[in-house]
Design a protein that fits this description.
Length: about 110
């Protein structure tokens, strides 16, 4: 199971850290990704990290501002959001890439005020 938390309200230019807590079996988990869906928008990919932590990937819209990382001891993946923009406002969800049954976690709301 995946549980996202850490959302809230932040002013533009501010920072917020999201966490995706992974519970249960992880031996089939290849990677974990963050997606977001803003009001009236389609869901979009934000960032991902391989489960061994060796590879990180970002969308162009967040590259240089967001950082994805993994705490191996707690099986938690973090998304550090810095220099936030109003267009970052969305529900952020984590997604476990675990073939053949990938897993969506519950989302957390992030609101960036201008």
């Amino acid at each position: 199971q995946l549980q996202a938390c850490g959302g809230g309200l932040v002013q533009a230019g501010g920072s917020l850290r999201l966490a995706c807590e992974v519970s249960g079996r992880t031996d089939n988990l290849n990677a974990l990704a963050w997606f977001r869906q803003g009001p009236g928008k389609a869901r979009e990919y934000v960032a991902s990290i391989t489960w061994n932590g060796e590879g990180t990937y970002y969308s162009d819209s967040v590259k240089g501002r967001f950082t994805i990382s993994k705490d191996n001891t707690e099986n938690t993946v973090y998304l550090q959001m810095d220099r936030s923009k109003p267009e970052d406002t969305a529900v952020y969800s984590c997604y476990g890439i675990s073939p053949p049954a990938n897993i969506w976690g519950q989302g957390t709301q992030v609101t960036v005020s201008s």
